[in-house]
Each structure stands twice: as structure tokens, then as C-alpha cells.
Design brief:
303 residues; seven-stranded parallel sheet; five-stranded parallel sheet; 11 helices
Length: 303
Amino acid sequence: MSAVLHVVQGMQGGMLTHLRTLLAGLAERGVACAVAGPAGLWPGLGSQPSVPLAAGSVRSLAALRRAVALRQPGLVHAHGLRASVLAAAALAALRPSRRCPLVCSIHGPLPPAGSPWRRPWHTAAVRWALERADAVLAVSRSLSGELSAWLGPWAAAPQRVTVVPNGVLLSGGAGCGCSRCARLSGRRRAGASCPVATCMARLVPVKGVDLLLEAAVRVAPGVPLRVWVAGDGPQRAELARQARRLGLAGRLRFLGACSHPAAVWARSDLAVLPSRAEGLPYAALEAMAWGRAVVAFAVGGLV
């Protein structure tokens, strides 16, 4: 029997960090957990999901329904919009005696205008799922307000959406002062010829890395600045072409997927988050924990 069954339908970036931190914290407190989601989607969790789900299929609904009926968790915690709809539907398909409380966490940013999730039937499905939840969590006040604007009076009701901000662990990680991180930071400063501005983000349009490259061109002539981009995604090739076109060779470095953010922040002087929309990004929190200034657009929880 699992005390908490976490449900995901797609996970990367901050949501992955969130779940990894949550699982570790619950384990320390003796709370048993299982994860239901697409098998092999996130090696960052250290293991395969306990309940493999085929993303977005009717089989996922049946598999999750069976898992809840057999495991009888004390709580189902869904992460993201798709997982919230799936979890609510699976619980609704069970006999009342087999159901358990449902918590839905919305990490943000919400789907932009024109997205399929903004179509009437998708909006109705999200509203239906969140109405059935025993608790709805948002990672920032801004995200809570966006939910209210999207879903209408229901989400705007007092105390319907609870804001639980993201957080970072300061022990053994960001800003911890351990000998390894101290050596990395010392090495960076000893060999530094110019400051390093780091953007840690998935390479997707909403993260605005293209805007960072445009800004770097304007800053470069007068300021000796190097730019690091830590992350990977479908825009990688497009952004590399943009960097070459703008003449940023020698000043810009793509680091690829980042498995140890502390090592990157130890060698950086400044964090840049050019996101077009956000919930409450872990990159900003980690950078601040390292004592790095953060330059960002006033979006989401960054306001």
C-alpha cells in the first residue's frame, strides 16, 4: 500500500525538480510513495514509475483506476493539468468506497492563448477536474490569479486555490558551502577574465532564450560578458543557428542538459531568465540561494 500516489503525464524542468524534492522529503518523514506516469520519461527520479502509464491514452485511465483500487493510497497527488484531469477521471470511475482524496498541483505556466488546452472542451475538462479535487495548489500568487482568469468564478472563490511556493534545499546543494562547491567557485573566480551570465532553462519558446541572444548582442560591444545556456530541448539547433547569425561565437556556450545545477551556479556571476511566462522557476531560486543576482522579465512568480 502506498500512502501517496503521485500522477504525472509529462515531466521536465522545474516540475521534475519539484517531484524529486517532494519524494525525498516524504521519504525522510516515513511516508511511502509511488509514481504513476509514462515509463522511462524521467531518469532524474532514479527509477521507473511504479505504475507505467501510456501518455494520453484510454489505457492510462484504466491502468490508473486499477492502481488506485489495488494500492488503496491515502492520497492521490496529480502534477499538472493533464495529470489532474486523468486522476480525477480515474477516481470518478471508482466506487465511492474505493476513492481517496485528490490534490492537484499546478506548476505553470498555463497554456497560452490559442493552445488546444484553451479550447472550450479542454477548459471544461480542467474545471471539472479541479472542482472535484480536495485541494488545488499553485506555486505562485500570479499563477493562482491566472487560473481564476481562465476558469472563471469557481477558481476565484476564496481559499479555493492555495499558494504553496517552490523552494530549494540549502543543505548539500545550492549555496551549501561544501568543499566541492567551494572548489568549483574558487576555480571559476581564479580563472575568470570576464563575468559569466547563465540562463538555465529548457530550450523551448516560452523560456525566451532567443530573446537572451538578441540582448547579448546589444550588451557585448561595451561589456566583456560571456553567456552560458544550461539546458536542452527542441529549439537547440534553431538557437545555435541564431547565435551564429548574430556573431556570438566565442561569447556564447551551450552547456546541454544540466544534471548538477550547483556546479553551474558556482561558476556563474549572474542569472538571466528571459522567460515569456513562468510559474515560480527553480532556476531563479537556486541562483539566489547561491547569492547570484537574477535578471528576468516581470512574469509569473518572478514579479
